[in-house]
Amino acid sequence: MGKDTKFRASGIAASQVLTALLVVFMTVLITLLPALCPTPFPPSPPRLFPLGDNPLAPDTAYAASETPKRNVLLLNSYHAGYRWSDDIIDGVRSVLLRPGNGNIDLHVEEMDTQRVTDPEYQDKLFEVYRQKFRQRPVDLVLCADDNAFTFMQKHVQALFPGVPVVFCGVNYLDDRCLTDCGLFTGVVEDYDLKATIETALRLRPQTKQIYWINDRSTTGRAIEKKMEETIPFFNDRIRFEALQDKTMPELLQTVQSLPDDSLVLFLIFNQDAAGRFFAYDESVSMIAEKSRVPLFGAWDFSLGHGIVGGMLTGGFSQGEAAAKLALRVLQGEKPSDIPVVREGVNRYMFDDTQLRRFGIDPVRLPAGSVIINQSYTDKKQILLLQSYDSGMDWTANMEAGIRAVFNDTDRYTLYLDYMDAKRNISPEYMHKTVPLFIEKYKNKHFDAVIVADDVAYHFALTYRKQLFADTPVVFCGVNGFEPADLAGQVNMTGVVEKVDFQQTIEMALRLHPRTERIVIVNDWSDTGIANRRQLEAILPDFGERVHFEFIGDVNMAEVQEKVAHLSSDSLVLLVTFNQDKSHSVFSYEESAELIARASSAPVYGCWDFYLGHGIVGGMVTSGYTQGETAAKLALRALNGERLEGVPVIRESPNRYMFDHRQLQRWQIDAARLPAGSVIVNKPESFYEKNQSIVFGASVLFAFLLYIIGTLQINIRRRRKAEETLRVFATIDELTGLFNRRSGMQFLQKHMEEAKRCRKELTVCFVDVNDLKRINDTFGHDEGDRLIKTVADLLQKSLRDSDVICRLGGDEFLLILPDCDLARAQKIWERVEESRRSINRIGLMPYAINFSHGFACYDPLEGLSPDELIKRADMEMYETKRALKAERALLP
């Protein structure tokens, strides 16, 4: 008999004995039920925590190379904050600052020539740069876009004699302009208008007229020239009309009345005929919102802001390609020997939101198209963006309240994210974190967004048009709410966290009538500042009754010292103290315990997370009710109601709550508490109420309890051992995925189901590239980290119905039920996009690569699971050989 069978048999026998004993036990205990069942205090909402580690916290650091420093100047035509050039700079950094590419110091100069167009301005720039770089060596100049390129052509010998120049983002390059520039090479911004128009006409075959929108900037004039070269390809079937030299109101009025058999080609529109400037996303969003017909485009920074899509050019890929050329130059190649890159940096990209808006079937898109905002489920997608971290009781309680409303997992998917602003309050942290959240959500569609607490609330107010557009937004837990915040906001409402300091103070004074001084403990966080404003507004109401003293910009030890020597006529009001003067960080619970334990006077507070950690109580605000109320507002939006018609809930659902232990410590009579108060931690004194019953029952049941306890311990041990054996038999210890044995069982099951139900089935064999090299270079711990990262990447990219297992080593098997090869390819595109995203942000000190091969199951062939896997394995090796051959051809 095997170990599993033995454990099960033992467990069954023990359970039978336990059942018999419990029958006797319960028969006697039935008389005790009234005494054993006092009215319970409503349980606290459960704390809920997300699974998984933060993938953006790499555990390795890159040490600067000992090679000589190379100084690279990036001359940007435009200004910081302009999406196109920001993407170029990010692309450059992703290559030049990658570990292993040498000791490169990248310096960026913003020319700001889009907002300042005066010719004399560039002459001034020349003088500034001549002074600035006269004594600063530059090994290579990167120039982004036409103005920087033209500037360098004119001034390179005067500013940087003999220094090579690599350009990118140049719109219309005439090869003759490089004849006398042997130190120049680069990447042309070769946007493919012809491919975009051809695709638009395939998707909208009824089109007879195309209106194209463009401005008169330097870039706009170059685009106009390209457009004039493209139009003749379509003159025999399409009429073109330029919408130039118009003000924005005129343009909006025009697109509102376009005929159904037309479409719009949006090129660039940063300045209208009246001289008004627009951000890259502002103009296209305004036009797309008013347009009756689809907008197509040429640049990826317009995607997600109203265009359907097209063959798009991206700033990131421009900068990335230019930086790769720069590396070659820094490694010794002559720029004149490096051909200008004109192709290979564009790709078909589309927005599923706009496809659905205009009834365009994604199946008709070009093969290999990237689709953003695509959803693979009918469930409503809800984002909960928390200001703080998941370990806070307040955050967890708020999340629990929201989950209580969206508890139907068949209808709703709740995405959780945390800005962690309580433990990281420095401006530098938020400055670096906000771009991460912008990048994370810019191409993600949600049906509703809930933002919790002030930091997430202000993030949503600032970046909503860019990220969430008309998506319903509900806020909760906000202290510093002003009605003016919502001016210009649509489809947004929420619930304010109104802390009732006044009733808490008045109640405390009634319980302690001899109080002459109240010490208010409050830090200088954003929440603390908002709370202090609220307190300062009500303190005059207490007149001469009591003296108030604020302490906050001190160390925790000083707070403890202060409250430890308070006189008997004093009280403490704990507002918030999460970070002291020395930047030591404390959780709400920790700060309450440290302060209350040291205090010689009672401590009161206004939040439920302080209860049980030292405060007496107060008029308490609950995170659970905040989250629950906000979720109910979001539910109204999901049911079709516009939120601008729903008033903000300004009165928080607060209630009086107290801690029984603290009432006893400070000898406060519970009878003096406000009517309806809730008392937590109140002991249930069963012995005092039922002393004779306890005495008799203890003799009668002592032996039974001993046996029951012994059996229970034995059963738990056996079940734990059995569970451990089961886990080791099915789960891969390193990745947490199914192991080979379990994977083969799932494959056999799905093959049988596919044969029985005549469904399609595809498997994908995945092999991680370069694992041996990474083990040899970085060690086996890093190799294990790579395997776990790939496992997590694959798992997050699959559908809920798919199965993934680790076959062993660096090999994985994806089982894709009810999936043909075409759909499998789309799933793999998500995998590849995730891989590229991880590589772009540089999570690893190397690029993650893997090879894959598909095999489709045909029941008529009668393949076994091993044969099906072998077929996918063979295709994978063909892919890997092709990749190696391609690498061998690279210089």
TrEMBL record:
InterPro entries: ABC_transpt-TYRBP-like (IPR007487), Diguanylate_Cyclase (IPR050469), GGDEF_dom (IPR000160), Nucleotide_cyclase (IPR029787), Rev_trsase/Diguanyl_cyclase (IPR043128). One of its GO terms (biological process) is negative regulation of bacterial-type flagellum-dependent cell motility. GO terms for molecular function: diguanylate cyclase activity. Pfam families: ABC_sub_bind, GGDEF. The chain crosses the membrane at residues 12-36, 693-711. It comes from the Bacteria. CDD domains: GGDEF (cd01949). GO terms for cellular component: plasma membrane. The keyword Nucleotide-binding does not apply. The keyword Transmembrane helix applies. Keywords: Membrane, Transmembrane, Transmembrane helix. Residues 759-891 form the GGDEF domain. This is Diguanylate cyclase. It comes from Heliomicrobium gestii.
